[in-house]
Amino acid sequence: MNFKLLRNSALLAALVLLLIGAPNRSFAQGRGGRGQAGPPPTAQAAAPEDLAGYWVSVVTEDWRFRMITPPKGDYSSLPLNAEARKVADAWDPAKDEASGEQCKAYGAAAVMRQPGRIHITWQDDNTLKIETDAGTQTRLFHFGASQPPAGQPSWQGYSVAQWEIPEAGRGGAPGPGALKEGETRGGSMKVVTNRLRPGYLRKNGVPYSGNAVLTEYYTRTNEPNGDSWLIVTTIVEDPQYLNQPFITSTHFKKQTDASGWNPTPCSAR
């Protein structure tokens, strides 16, 4: 395990924010060379890194908030306003169960922090799918989409994705051909999610509203010992409940197969 990488997760989150304003090439459908004939490559073909496969979460920070359900009123390290604290202090898991809302902590703004495994595949050439065994949730990341179609808010909302690839240095960027297993060109996947059903940032009733906007960056690293890591930097902005953006960095380790994959239903407790 690369402990140095894990210890630097907070630094990574800050670095991602800094890089948002740095020059980069962002492509909804992928990356095509200048003057390239024909249509641009699909998102799958233009991927700068191969994210497909099974990944298991490695919990190295916020253990007491992620591995067990914190007690009511424990919302330390969260930038909550007075309204959010009032809602959190009224948390009642039995009420959530009775109303069929036991998935509140498994919405897009929180599900990647749940301990467990994820399975990443391509649903089609321009739609990436992430399945979680925690809560048995499915997220769809749409490349090339600008506006969500009409529809009701949902736990996973509507996610628009694009590849963010640094500007090529001297010698130019590599071509957009399909990646081989484990190959990476460098870059991240940026995902913006809105149209969310109100849920919980933590399982003990800390709320996020339907006005929340979720921005995520997915970056794969390949270590000298053969391990591969997926770093998910998450930024939640919610004008109703948060005084400032809530930023986390979550780590997943690549698995060789589906060992341990165990879809389980949502739990309110």
Structure description:
There is one protein chain. The protein has one domain. A hairpin with a 2-residue loop joins strand 3 and strand 4. The strands form two sheets. The chain has a nine-stranded mixed barrel. It is α+β, with helices and mostly antiparallel strands and 269 residues long. It has five helices and twelve strands.
Mean pLDDT across the residues is 86
Helix content: 10-25%
Strand fraction = 25-35%
Strand order of the largest sheet: 2-3-4-5-6-7-10-11-12
Number of helices: 5
Beta strands, count: 12
Alpha-beta classification: alpha+beta
Radius of gyration: 19 Å
Distance between the termini: 31 Å
Tell me the series of helices and strands, N- to C-terminal: HHEEHHHEEEEEEEEEE
Outline, from the CA principal axes? globular
Please summarize the sheet with the most strands.
9 strands, mixed, barrel
Query: Any idea how many domains?
Result: 1
Low-confidence stretches: 1-23, 27-35, 169-175
